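Structure ticket #2291
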Amino acid sequence: MLWALLLLLHLFFHNQIGATRLRDVSTDSALELALVNFHRYAGQSESTYVYAKPFYIHSVGGLLERSLAGVLFTGYKNLTHAIWLGINTAAMQAEIYDQKAGGLDDIQFKLGYDLLKLEDAHGTLYLVGTAPTGNRPCSCICLPTVGTKNGSFGFGLDTQAVAFEIKDCELSLSIDLKYRYVFSSHEYQPVYSRIYPRGTIDVWIALNVPLYAWDVELGYDLWWLNKEKIITAGQLCKKTACALSQKIYLDVGYTAADIRLRPLIAVGASYECAHTNALNQWMMWMTAGITF
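Resolution: structure written out below.
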């Protein structure tokens, strides 16, 4: 079978193929924040925000072709006037060359403090961490996996402000900067190894244009993963190259502002271009959210 042949190629050419990194869905800033960030901060009085995003992702890179389908769940809770808690995860199925695996992606937690909270601007510092959900002993990229064995911890800065006005239309600029240090784990690839992924950075920028009850958002996301250090059972130490990719997306949504729950319905699409040891991929999603 084709997948078995690719697995053999992975074993023989691990230094080349094994360096390719598969980006986590639950920590993808663009997927998490697209229109959600604007919708959340547009409602100053609500205390709870819940969103569901059905998505489909198709990734291609070298010999690898992967598809992901599932639902991203995101929730925010204002604990006090300035402190909030966010939780993010995805239930999904991964498929690589007729091989399938399903489950829950890593769970991302955010604890934020609003330094600035005005009608037309806000600024937030937050702590971020992930709880690993993967239990597969082999990290071969030719086999589908959901979740990782690596927890992480870091911090971020989230800002949003009205950039300029055109007649009665206010254009908002949002920026989110996130850094996470990824902890080490034991994996089999293809010999028993300890993996030190180190740090990863997400830079998310979006321009939102409200048109009455409609919102149009154009966004950009940069993802960078530092070099990994791999120590095998025989104490052989080697490093992989950094991973780097850039993504652009368009999201269009409708918010029923005159309804108590202020529901959000949206559709979006993105394309991600891999520059180093990542995958080119396109994505489509829908968003359904409420506040209360």
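Closing remark: DSSP finds four helices and 17 strands in the chain.
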